[in-house]
Amino acid sequence: MKTSIPCPSCQKPLTIEHFEDFPTPFHMKCPHCRANLKETKMTPLLLLIAAIVVPLLIFIGIRVKSFLSNNGSTKTYKNEKSY
Ligand SMILES: [Zn+2]
């Protein structure tokens, strides 16, 4: 899976890990050449990150939700039985 784009300034690959290190999405500097990355230039990468992260968060959310509901139903069942 390709999750990197070339830096607009030095053409070195910027990966999603680099972007996780940025304090905010609006203060981005290239980790290789320290060039300020303009928001507009980074829009494709932000879209790429959104395309990866959003389904991931939804997936995690569904997993957590089903985990919690499974746990809850087990507890409820046990409580009902003990009564
Ligand atoms: Zn660079």
Describe the structure.
The protein has a two-stranded antiparallel ribbon. The relative contact order is 0.11. The chain is elongated. It is built from two helices and two strands; from the N terminus they run ββαα. The chain has one domain (4-82). Strand 1 (4-6) and strand 2 (13-15) form a beta hairpin. The protein is mainly alpha-helical and 83 residues long. The site of zinc ion (ZN) has 8 residues, from loops.
Note the run of SSEs as H and E. EEHH
Ions and ligands: zinc ion
* Strand proportion: 5-15%
Structural class of the helix and strand makeup? Answer: mainly alpha
Residue share in helices?
55-70%
Provide the low-confidence segments as ranges.
none
Quote the average pLDDT.
77
Oligomer category: single chain
Count the strands? 2
> Could you describe the largest sheet, including whether it forms a barrel?
2 strands, antiparallel
Q: How far apart, in Å, are the first and last alpha carbons? A: 53 Å
Number of domains: 1
- What would you report as the Rg, rounded to the nearest angstrom? 21 Å
Molecular shape = elongated
Task: Strand order, main sheet: write it out.
Answer: 1-2
Keywords: Membrane, Transmembrane, Transmembrane helix
Transmembrane segments: 45-64
